[in-house]
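In practice, a research group might receive sequence data for several interacting partners and want a quick structural hypothesis before committing to experiments. The following worked case mirrors that situation: the sequences arrive first, and a predicted assembly follows.
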Amino acid sequence: MRHRITVTVNGETEFLEVESHRTLLQVLREDLDLTGTKNGCNSGECGACTVLFDGEPVNACLVLAVEADGHEVITIEGLAQEGALDPLQRAFINRNAVQCGFCTPGMIISARALLDRNPQPSEMEIRQAIAGNLCRCTGYTRIVEAVQEVAES
Amino acid sequence: MKIFDYIKPKTLAEASAFMIEHDGEAKLYAGGTDLLILMRDGFITPQYIVDIKEIPSLRDISFDETAGLTIGAAATLNAVASSPIIRTRFGLLAEAAETIGSYQVRNRATIGGNICNASPSADTVPALLVLGAMAWVFGGGEEKAVPLDTFFTGPGKTMLGPGNILTSIQVPLSPAGSAHRYLKLGRVRAADLALVGVAVLGFPQPGNPSGYGFRIALGAVAPTPIRAPEAEALLAESVDDEAVDKAALAAMRTAKPISDVRAKAEYRSAMVRVLTRRGIQEVLEDLH
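A structural hypothesis for the assembly, expressed as tokens:
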């Protein structure tokens, strides 16, 4: 079954035709070439596919593309404004919070949403907010510090 | 994943009729955080996914002093965990909901899904059992109330028949002055299934010899989440250290855990005792 949908992605209106079974993750990566969002586990456990759906972080691997009709999606590509990196992106670079980079898009999206709803989070609140974003490289310390750096400024 | 069709009915009646017409080939869809994974792993292969979460009122959370709390079955776990009325008057449920998955998962996963997926380890259920919750089920054009302790019939199984849809959970007011804890043991602190889940509600009860009433429910250690009536009865008599130990032991004996890939039965059993004792002690501290 094909569905015609209208989705706002990173501020742009997209008119798409998607099959019922395709996920938002697949459509973002394959139809819109927005490959910043990653497929880590395809089961909502790792958070590498985290995007903002109407401002709230979700695992795009567990959202059917058809459900995005009429909604707003923001991916990592949508965070930088007119070429200027989001403060979180800059902090991740400055703090060496990126090693292989695979978790980074999802991690930054989760952190962005945290700071939007709680501008001064405690360390525990940061850790809880990114609990759904797994990192195999960094041990999380510098990621937490990068979020704290942005929160303090 | 086998290819399927996505259907979005506008009313409960439409959804129910579709489910009856396509009985065995269709699955109700809300958050999808359990369903899509079961489908991806090939455990189920529905022909139709029936999205009901935007049917009016299924997401509503409302409260009045008579009816108590009413939570639409499609309310997300984050909506439940962050609802001011739930946090202040039904805090045990907020506490339990927050232990599930991750922030991203909780933005999609629903309380109705947690209940209807009927995992023995479902975290909202021990809290709801202890709070005396009622399930409202739509079917045959009407809604009927089903006490939650009769809702589950086995691991992954509920009393819901073809065309039945869980529409809301109703939670009565808790006794005045109550305190609560939900203790969840997992292999890691976040985003894990419960190896053992213990919900404890304690409240002043002048009619009891101990002066207190307790309700205790256990998750992940029986075919369905269960109450621990022997433990509760012991605490009605006394809440001194010896009684608390005896109650924890009674809870352990009520549990019938299995060994699985996550933990052995003996470990789960031992942890029921530890967590129950800890939960009772912490609630008593809050009550004093």
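Before designing any experiment, note the following. The mean pLDDT of chain B is 97. Chain B touches chain A at residues 1, 3-6, 31-33, 36-37, 40, 49, 51, 78, 101-105, 107-108, 189-191 (CB under 8 Å).
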